Amino acid sequence: MMRKFVSDRAGRNIILVRSFHHLKQLLQRPLSATQSRFLSSTVLDSTSSMASSNSSAPPVNLDTINPKVLKCEYAVRGEIVTLAQTLQQELQSKPGSHPFDEILYCNIGNPQSLGQEPITFFREVLSLCDHPAILDRSETQGLFSADAVERAWQILDQIPGRATGAYSHSQGIKGLRDTIAAGIEARDGFPADPNDIFLTDGASPAVHAMMQLLIRSEKDGILCPIPQYPLYSASIALHGGTLVPYYLDEATGWGLEVSELEKQLDNAKSKGVIVRALVVINPGNPTGQVLAEENQRGIVEFCKKERLVLLADEVYQENVYVPEKTFHSFKKISRSLGYGEEDLSLVSFQSVSKGFYGECGKRGGYMEVTGFNADVREQIYKMASVNLCSNISGQILASLVMSPPKVGDESYESFSAEKEGILASLARRAKALEDAFNNLEGVSCNKAEGAMYLFPRIYLPQKAIKAAEAVDIAPDAFYCRRLLNATGIVVVPGSGFGQVPGTWHFRCTILPQEDKIPAIVSRLTDFHQGFMDEFRD
Amino acid sequence: MMRKFVSDRAGRNIILVRSFHHLKQLLQRPLSATQSRFLSSTVLDSTSSMASSNSSAPPVNLDTINPKVLKCEYAVRGEIVTLAQTLQQELQSKPGSHPFDEILYCNIGNPQSLGQEPITFFREVLSLCDHPAILDRSETQGLFSADAVERAWQILDQIPGRATGAYSHSQGIKGLRDTIAAGIEARDGFPADPNDIFLTDGASPAVHAMMQLLIRSEKDGILCPIPQYPLYSASIALHGGTLVPYYLDEATGWGLEVSELEKQLDNAKSKGVIVRALVVINPGNPTGQVLAEENQRGIVEFCKKERLVLLADEVYQENVYVPEKTFHSFKKISRSLGYGEEDLSLVSFQSVSKGFYGECGKRGGYMEVTGFNADVREQIYKMASVNLCSNISGQILASLVMSPPKVGDESYESFSAEKEGILASLARRAKALEDAFNNLEGVSCNKAEGAMYLFPRIYLPQKAIKAAEAVDIAPDAFYCRRLLNATGIVVVPGSGFGQVPGTWHFRCTILPQEDKIPAIVSRLTDFHQGFMDEFRD
């Protein structure tokens, strides 16, 4: 930008712009420090006519759509996945056309797509709530567990008119919010208020809502971890804000240092960015680390001191695989420090898509909103009301997730067996893949303490980097594409999540079923060895 | 704006701005024609430092949230509904505390909240898909109809891995889109492409997506009917665009005249607004009219000529109550005029919340996107992918709605009886309420040819208008509040939808169950008579 600047007779800097639209475009990009200084004493000279903006409507094309949409990127379902879908179609129409017979989607935390079975009790209750007419029938006793029938009745009684097909209160059905608040209290040991709960279609719409609330222009910044789950970068781009990166330290197991937060905050301020909020993903996505309690206390103190909204992505709260780490919600940490509503604006995101249940397709979730003024809360409610309500099955499931069967319930034993079976298997899969990555030449991989991902670093040979540059793609995307074409394994290049410049990674889920892990490890190892043989410097 | 303008020695106009932020604020407002002319040869002079925007983060309050959120309004769940909820709580805690014993929510098209039963076949299929484990069990044969079991199997076979708990393709499950496309073809007699279908959590997120795509700034306008369903005004406000109103003609049964569209388009252009799209709601909300085919042809020609995207809200396509009118989709009209992909950009919105099924809580729906460039389509897909997918139960229900039981299926007769029963009853209720409104002194009400609403006009006495002004609320809101307090009936003031200035209306759904209509009519009539006795000029 600013290629056309001149000085006028008074010695002022002048930027020549082609049009009003052009001027606005210039102003919509983030400014470098030099550009900011230049602008601080600048005159903008628009010499051309504005009349062009009054001309007849342009057709819809990439030049005329919202540039924020263009800017938005979401690697988890990006080009690599499109390529995978093409390969899958080719495998179907021409079996044997590739050196593998199935595509293994390790790009996304979507457990049931890879064969994970749903939790029986949850599905029983959903099924009964979808068709309450069968609740009284004798056949139902044979098909469903007694506590599922009882829970379905309880839930139906919480819904006005037992109408599971009606729009609910825009925050979600009050009785279900009571259940969720009770679940949060049981988890944290601190009170939770059902009026703080906003039920949402998964966590993503909740994140969008907070970005929409907080971001006024590209001068508003949101501190986000790098690497980050690209929903955050996408949502910030769509809402026209600025992502202020802070780097997780790979050398200390993706450590989150408060000193790094302070440094990046100061850096953003010096560029004129007003930082509104801090995003923390715990357990980490794509990085899999689980924060230590002391570390969380430091983060809370930092947000309090700097008056930042703490956006706590806690959707992997049930996914912790190492005995030395425990999940603590940021609300628990904040309350245990003695901080209340006035001290910290905190939003905690939870989802039915993750945990041991992995009910991605149900699109259920909630945010717990604490520490906001009543009038701001009213605005959040208004935004929710424009979309009427989240889907009722997702609402019901969110309540089940926060209040599963208890000791003594008919389903308790089978529920616990399903839950423990899935979590133990995930831990084994995480370890097997971590070991496999660490056995590869020029690859190092931190432990997945939690969440559903590994994020190995690949030390790519210069020759591979040059080969990638020659075809104009990022070196890690080059690696991932080659991996997919050779093995059918879909992973996401680190560049989609952000990484320290000059380092290369990819994200791989730990979700393929256990009996497939040996084959994956062997295909991956063979591919990697061949890749290194081809490109080793 | 532009209070500080001067001329420099070269004779150029200069606008003095306080800060970079100030300059951007100026540029974010719509410009008058004079201002546009002025700007066409303007120099913008920023003399103050940019440092002020570097100050520490402000707390979150109404001054620091996104002003677009503040600007957004959604009357359907606005103040009157909050008051109704308070009254309902008072009735529960203190029975007899009000002159009525229940709140009748006529504010929102939410049929099942008022006792409408769901369609059995739809719920059977949803229930089975939620818990496929019971499909093979013998008890299931006794509980579910055979064709529901068969349909559930069909649907499960369309889902990769039969995983109803997995994220689907971001446009929705391909097999379900095939079913929907076939349903559209059967409805219209013209081809439909499953790749044009984007399944969504109800129609609202689809409308938001199109607004997000099309609106770049407040210079972009969207032509909307007045009165309109306030999702449109809310979404345009949230995305920072300009609502360009066109008025429906109450005198001709809420007629939509192309001459009015032309007039308002020209008017908008003269103000420097670039009109991107035309919203048409057919059947109308809140107005209930069903467009004549010839009228629709004129609208298509207008959009084609003016290169406007036609956003066709067709969620009430099953809700037509008069024999002389038939629903025609805009896609059918466009194709029957011989227009194809290159001629018209058209988006049709459909929802499972309306029709005879009224499954609002399921949050299912789709948009059919035709006439967009491949690269723009890719951007729409990318936006969908950021949110992963819509909820699978809603997706399944959308496919059922577009492909209900057919002659010969076990459920066909009971399904048809349920469907016809609901639609015939809605027609009777619409007529009864219309007659009741027209019998009131100073009230006139057009026929509800379709949709779920009546929008009577009330000729309020001057004395009532003054009384409303004295308490600083709109006269129609004053009337609706008095009605609620006296009768428990919740309707939405016309000012929430827009109306010709100086006219007053309210929107009342036709959804209370039939046995309640006589009591409603009598309470309404008594209230109105008392109101007129109090305020008659």
Automatic annotation (TrEMBL), chains A, B:
CDD domains: AAT_like
Keywords from the UniProt entry: Aminotransferase, Pyridoxal phosphate, Transferase
Highest taxon listed in the record's lineage: Eukaryota
First-tier enzyme category under EC: transferase
E.C. designation(s): 2.6.1.2
UniProt-recorded Gene Ontology molecular function terms: L-alanine:2-oxoglutarate aminotransferase activity; pyridoxal phosphate binding
Pfam families: Aminotran_1_2 (PF00155)
Pathway info: Amino-acid degradation; L-alanine degradation via transaminase pathway; pyruvate from L-alanine: step 1/1; Photosynthesis; C4 acid pathway
Annotated GO biological process: L-alanine catabolic process
Domain Aminotransferase class I/classII large intervals: 159-516
Cofactor(s) the protein needs: pyridoxal 5'-phosphate
Record carries keyword Transferase: yes
InterPro entries (alphabetical): ALAT1/2-like (IPR045088), Aminotransferase_I/II_large (IPR004839), PyrdxlP-dep_Trfase (IPR015424), PyrdxlP-dep_Trfase_major (IPR015421), PyrdxlP-dep_Trfase_small (IPR015422)
PANTHER family: ALANINE AMINOTRANSFERASE (PTHR11751), ALANINE TRANSAMINASE (PTHR11751:SF29)
Subunit field text: Homodimer.
Family: Belongs to the class-I pyridoxal-phosphate-dependent aminotransferase family. Alanine aminotransferase subfamily.
Protein name: alanine transaminase
The species this protein was found in: Juglans regia
